[in-house]
Amino acid sequence: MIYRYRDQAALDASLNARATVPDVAPFITAYAEASAKARATLECRANVPYGPTPAERVDIFPARMPASPVYVFIHGGYWRALDARDSSFMAPMFVAAGAAVVAVNYELAPAASIDEIVRQCRAAMNYVFENAAAFNGDPARVHVSGSSAGGHLAAMALGGDARVQSASTLSGLFDLEPVRLSDCNEWAKLDAASAARNSPLRHLPKRPVPLVVSYAPNEAAEFAVQSEAYLAASVAVGCHARFVAEPGTNHFDLPMRFMDRDSALSRAVLETMGLG
Asked: Which is the most buried residue in 205, 238, 244, 255, by most CB within 10 A?
């Protein structure tokens, strides 16, 4: 056995999100097309740098009113794919609901280590706190969110900064030890120490915050198991954490439920942001 009761094949399968759908390409195309539409129809400050490297940039959609909540989204792609340009499809819904939206970009693996990706995302959060007023945001009302690897990165941002007011994680990974032992380590390049350093289950929220956790009904096993573990651990440290179901979704279209203000996920997150 490689991990718990799993041999190598079973462990690899438990982390294979792509195997849960016939073809991932239509979802990637949908992200890009809906995000391009958002940039074309809303005020958008694109490619704003938050750090010294070309990858360290954010796309900002200002709120319509000063001192509004800020929704920060960190994209997935198993730390090795996608871009902020693919990650603003939810901006029209959140801006219409009264928030500013910030889509975070970061250097991808394996060019960047997981340590460095986490550092960059935390730097992006610091940029948001320091500059929120410039895009009508309130630094005391910042919500961090992410899907898949972005769910992991959102949880690491939450665990690393007590200023985060609320959070949501979709299909995240919260213990990187099984990732280290799986075929995903071809690009994650984790050792035992870096897996521990970057596991949100070892870095729980700094203070009790509202937290929404979700995953798809047909999720690859490790994403579901780890989401439940993170939910329970967050409740244990005092967070008002809850699971929100979105029947009929999969790992890849689950975050697109944020395009619909009436979806269960949208309603739950808007409530945590004071916009319910």
From this structure: 255
Q: Is the pLDDT of residue 141 over 90?
A: yes
Q: How big is the chain, counted in residues?
A: 276
Residues 69, 273 contacting (CB under 8 angstroms): yes
Q: pLDDT by residue (tens digit) across 91-102? A: 999 999 999 999
Helix pair 149-160, 114-131: axis angle to 10 deg: 60
Confidence of residue 161 (pLDDT cuts 50, 70, 90): very high
- Yes or no: say if 237 and 155 are a contact pair by the CB < 8 Å rule: no
Q: Which residue has the tokens 């996608």?
A: 82
**CATH T-level assignment (fold) for domain 8-272:** Rossmann fold (3.40.50)
CB-side exposure of 123: number of CA atoms within 13 Å? 19
By the 8 A CB rule, do 237 and 205 touch? yes
pLDDT given for residue 276 in this prediction: 82
Residue 213 one-letter amino acid: V
Cβ neighbours of 36 (radius 10 Å): 14
10 Å CB burial of residue 154 (0-12, 13-18, 19+) is buried
